[in-house]
## 1
Amino acid sequence: MPLGQAGMPSVTELINRVHLSTDSTIGCPIKPRHPGSPLAPSINLSCANEFADTEALSIAHENKYSSVRYARDSSDLIIQLEVYLSALHESTSTCIFQSGMAAIDAALTTCLKHAETILTVGSLYRKSSGLIKLKADECKIEYIHLDSIKDLHELKTSLPDKPLIFLETPSNPFLEIQDIRSLRALLPDSIIIVDITLQGLANDKIKIHNFADIVVCSCTKYASGHNDILAGYAVTKDESLFKDMWEFRSMRGCILDSLSAYLLIRSLRTYDIRIERLISSAKVVLEFLKYNRNIDRIYFPGSCENLRQEKLFRATQFHGGSVITFRASSLVNTRKNISSLLSTKMAPSFGSIDSLIEIPALMSHWGKSKEELQTIGLDEQVIRLSLGLEPLDYILSDLDLLLKDHA
Ligand SMILES: *Cc1c(COP(=O)(O)O)cnc(C)c1O
């Protein structure tokens, strides 16, 4: 196995298989390989497509979701990307959006029509929880937040028939895994949306789309991996949810633009090799941190402080990714040291070719009171590192600088 993880799908291989497939349901831009095939797709910036006659137009209307007429609805590159991403999720239906948040907005708007209560579980991306509060207010529906799926057991009997549940796995910044299978077993009739951004692509052992109604992912992170585009997708097995999201996208105009779609396809072509390198660097960095005297705690999926989740981690993901959160000892002046790093940049985001570092209390959780931060276990000693593709020596020497104490 290329990634040292038995059974882990290769994104390149899945893309190759799409082009070899003779499946007639596959949309127009997917061509089987032939002598003279371009290796990279063409960038077509046209906003409108011409029809030869009214017959061709009516065929396009009948095949609305797989044809190309106006670029706010779809385009060749978008359909190509959607076919690739659907293949990653076992031929579900995919909608691509101009950002992860646009995908989350579409998923929430579509599902809220069917729900009476919205429940969120575990820590959430700040803008997602903001958007959920806004939507709950707008729709005048009840909003409940729970710390863990366990808390649902007590609440279960008092819940309405169809709650909408939104959660992320793994969570940020402490990288805890949510047991989506047990959630589905507990509430079989609920509507579940799962954000798998921190998992990345092709890192899902349980085929999460079989347990969640909609799976959303920000491609701005691991999938694009170059910090040069915003993008997101939503996949579902449910045709009617897919059609609703597609219509939402068409009405709101939040489809991914063609240049970004091209760049995302470019990024998928290097996905395996990027992830392979990130996984192997993460292993080395974890060992380095474990033996550093100025590290108090390390958070990584299924290990270190999250060791109690080892079994769940092994059952659900192929690897833990390249984001590592840790607590530096009180001897370390994190504010000062983080400004002295040579190749690691202090910036939000993760999963890219650039090593990025942040103090969540000063970045993603900026503006929260000390007490609010304390309840989620954050202070200025907690650091989130996202590994990039720099030579490991550079990363490790930056960590030496970061963890220097003032003693
Ligand atoms: C970044 C992120 C988002 C939002 O994605 P954008 O592409 O920035 O809109 C949503 N959820 C999680 C977990 C993220 O990390």
## 2
Amino acid sequence: MNDGFLPFAKPFIEDEEINEVVDSLRSGWVTMGPKTVKLEESLAQYTGAKNIVAVNSCTAALHLSLLALKIGKGDEVITTPYTFAATVNSIIHVGAKPVFVDVERETANIDAGKIEEAITERTKAIIPVHYAGQPCDMKEINDIAKRSNLKVIEDAAHAIGAEYGGKPIGHSDNTVCFSFYATKNITTGEGGAIATNDDGAAKMAKIMRLHGMSADAWKRYTNKNSWYYEIEECGWKYNMTDPQAALGLVQMKRLNELRDIRIKYAKMYTNAFKELEGLITPVEKPDRLHAFHLYPLLLKNYDRSEFIQEMSKRGIGCSVHFIPVHLHPYYRRTMGTKEGLFQNAEWFYNREVSLPLYPKMSEADVQKVVEAVKSILGA
Ligand SMILES: *Cc1c(COP(=O)(O)O)cnc(C)c1O
């Protein structure tokens, strides 16, 4: 198992997580049930959001958020090309049109100063993506949304545990979508959640996550005589399961601790790299806490593929976040996007390499990465 290779990512799963999952299996509740409700309560308490809807992925959370906010055919939704395909696909799935706005070079987050020129009378929502775990310029974005009467759905797949203006991400009047995918800051294997203060949207998302059945229809299993349900909408099958929620419940207890290890390791990287000629370390903007889901390092003039190969030779896995959405064949083919359209996204992508950053790493592992980077750059 331990061949000395440091993988790019690894979940933090200990006996406590395993025991809680086993407890769920022994209880017989293997689909959505009491542990899912407990996880929703835990997330509500942490974020301060009025409602949490747990689902089976952040992709489902984004899709249901758009549906619950009645965004669909003929509508436009603004987001950035510097994200995972899921953000954009969810917009396409409801029949709306994604409209890309370029990112800033400092953070790879949406450039709030460029949003207004992309708004048309069809625009219904903005989906900012908190890239790498650093919150976007939410004050500016919320002001624009208010002026133009737009909804804001935050893609917070990287940002559980991050803070903006002293408040946890999820504590806002926006709809906020989290991911608990295997590599994210906390995991349920696969999973996600919607945070919203809008009771109507939460109710609709709950109906739509389970076939369109009247809210909390799963409760009928707890009551022997309750066989009756009604389908109110044409919904989806997006519910979380209790074994997933069991994992998430223990991860929630560790959330701040795990985040703080990420922040500590990110600082170690930045201290080691900030004086090196050929590198640009992550910029942290004021008034927010970066949750450091990723450590995106920018190479000024070293070939990125060669760098990743050299890291691999030294026993270290790296990755790249993201291949800009507008460069993938599907979007080129269907939306006519092409190279050159979003120059900051492409600038960031051409230089970016994500270093391993997770709490299962030891400080010695961090040091190993630092030494490898230095030796490759000849520093
Ligand atoms: C991981 C990710 C998603 C999708 O999350 P899933 O839980 O895997 O569906 C969405 N947006 C971004 C930015 C992501 O990194």
## 3
Amino acid sequence: MPRVTFGSKTFNRREWVSALILGRGGVLLGAWPRGGQLTGVVPFVGEGNPPMDTPLGQELDGRLFTDLSRLRTEDAIVATDQFYIRTRASRLLPPLNSWRVQVSGPKHSISISARDLIAHSEPSDVHVIECSGNRRNAHFGMLSAASWAGVPVSTLLDRVDAGGLRYVVISGFDTYSTPSETSIPGASWVFPLDDIHASAAFLATKMNGQLLTADHGAPVRLVVPGWYGCCCIKWVIGISLVSGVAEATSQMREYASRTHQRGTPALAREYEPATVDAAAMPIRVEKRRVGERIKYLVAGIAWGGSRPTEALDIRFDPGQQYVPVESVYPRQQASWTFWTHSWLPQRTGRYTIQLRVADPHVRTRRLDAGYYSRTVEISET
Ligand SMILES: Nc1nc2c(c(=O)[nH]1)N[C@H]1C(S)=C(S)[C@@H](COP(=O)(O)O)O[C@H]1N2
Ligand SMILES: [Mo]
């Protein structure tokens, strides 16, 4: 009986077919173009084998890697319990019903309860969040999309007099019961006020229609649409207006190279906006039998950038010419874009799949560097 590997699960043919029909745990490929009979999924090689879709570790070293290989074309969001986690909730988090956010200007400050923020939350769009440290050896699973509800940071800032200050530092609770082996505690980020307004940054209290979970920053976290996750401070406690000579925070310095800064600037104002460039990667390579032939279908996503990606090019070897990706689906809200491409490899062996945004004017620093290229081993053509 042939076995089919899908994400971390292996099915025999019968289980696989029922997985397709029943969509167990969201595993359903029905929405991808069919064409022939699906006989398996070719795994990406050289990406490690961490458990996916399950919380690992605790506090600052806690993680959850999202299994993106199971996404369907209609999946504009990831279920909350499968949304990636970078840093799990501290054991020392204060009780949520006493939680307050301090908003401080140069002349006075106000304090707002989390309950008030929840009560005044308005639904927002779907937004993708990606950890700037999203990495190959966790299958690039530090990338997820959710629908959010919250209160714009601008609305809160309107309630204090900025007195001419043009930067704002947003800080989260970041004290843990155990020391981290890999990360520096202290989560805060300094933003130019103009970027807070332009990005429509908001304090989120809900995710996918429910109150935030502890691991995702309950009771209140920052979401900065279009910026890397390291800016999206969880467990927010303070928003303070600061001057242009504010120092970069430890978080900004820790993430300087991952957010494409030049060196590690000392002052916050010397940091470029930590926005996510347009990017794309394959998430699944399906093997299909069409009559007597074997055909492959590469399925993937595109995200980041300031506008939805409408056209992509793909190549299967560094030396090869790029060709246009066959189908790029319309994007739902501000989530990722799905794409598919059928592929008839001419030989067996390894192929490295790389994407390019067709519009050469779009900035794609990570794509250009091969950051999201993924390798498969083809054993049958
Ligand atoms: N207080 C606090 N906020 C934080 C962090 C943290 O360690 N502490 N990690 C940041 C990083 S690096 C990322 S990628 C996002 C991840 O959000 P998520 O765990 O909800 O996916 O939270 C950010 N907010
Ligand atoms: Mo991150």
## 4
Amino acid sequence: MKKPIYVTKPYIPPMEEYLKYIEEIWKSEVLTNMGGLHNQLEYQLKQYLEVPYAMLFTNGHSALELVLEGLNLSGEVITTPYTFASTSHAIVRNGLTPVFCDIKDSDFTMDSSKIESLITEKTTAILAVHVYGYPCDVEGIRKIAKKHNLKVIYDAAHAFGEKVEGIGIGNFGDASMFSFHATKVFHTVEGGAVIIKNMELGYKLHQLRNFGITGEESITSIGSNAKMSELHAAMGLCNLKHIDELIAKRRVRVEHYEKRLSKIPGVRIAQRRDDVEYNYAYMPIVIEEKEYGEDRDYVCTRLNREGIFPRKYFYPLVNTCDCYLEKCDMQETPIANHISKSVLSLPLYADLPMEIVDKICDLIEER
Ligand SMILES: *Cc1c(COP(=O)(O)O)cnc(C)c1O
């Protein structure tokens, strides 16, 4: 049996590089609570992402939950169903109601032309997702939010290091969240960050990630615990040195996939924009059954038989799960429903052999 090929594989940096940081930790005897490596990583991320301020958290999901809490939202939050469950879970876990907006067929991000009809007097924010690293219509969303006085938060879990018209993608909206989970383009094993623009929100988040402690003898809010440890920060410092090379390698694989797959009738790939620097985080394809002759599950099973394991990201949609049906009124999201039933995320990581990319394309082409 050959080694199975999974949808992704975490990047493992050279061990000597990690051990150098571990030696530093042994010398400093600081393991957590905003230590030296933590602060170094926050600084380097701010530089790399070209943003005003980056704050680290234990993981992307707690970062998202806490930034929603820090913004003091109430009532309804307009979001997308076409995402990882974390996005809308963070809304519901803050006692807020998600209102699901449909997505665009061309790149699977929130359709900004459908937002306004969902706004009610209870709406306080828009939480959109740069899904697979395809940037949202940030300008359209900014205008709607300004007109209706709404906060904008981006789940940028997939969008590390991207730029839109030369601007670091973390700069849009009131705040953005990046996930540094092991399977993401840049990782700290588990981890995440929030990008903020003003220190008022920064100060709140600083309390929320550390039990609301503001001094040796003062606790001023009911905070959580979401601090990143020195061992995780060390992994981030190692990986950040390799990130440009990793993205470049992903790009070669994605361009090859796209070149070959775009020639197959019934196989659709997202539209790319000329004004975006992508990070090539995922390789989703949509199988249009009528044109292709077979459905998504057929393609998935066919690849599985050859030891190749793509994933049906994002299926099922959160707004079709029982745990949501009892929480909110369901909006119709026909495009998201269709994409969810037709999408397949193909294997993609920096050192995925090019022969495997070709083999996957061959299998999809042959049907
Ligand atoms: C991975 C992911 C998250 C959650 O991040 P964690 O770091 O795993 O907690 C949130 N939203 C999206 C879209 C993600 O892909």
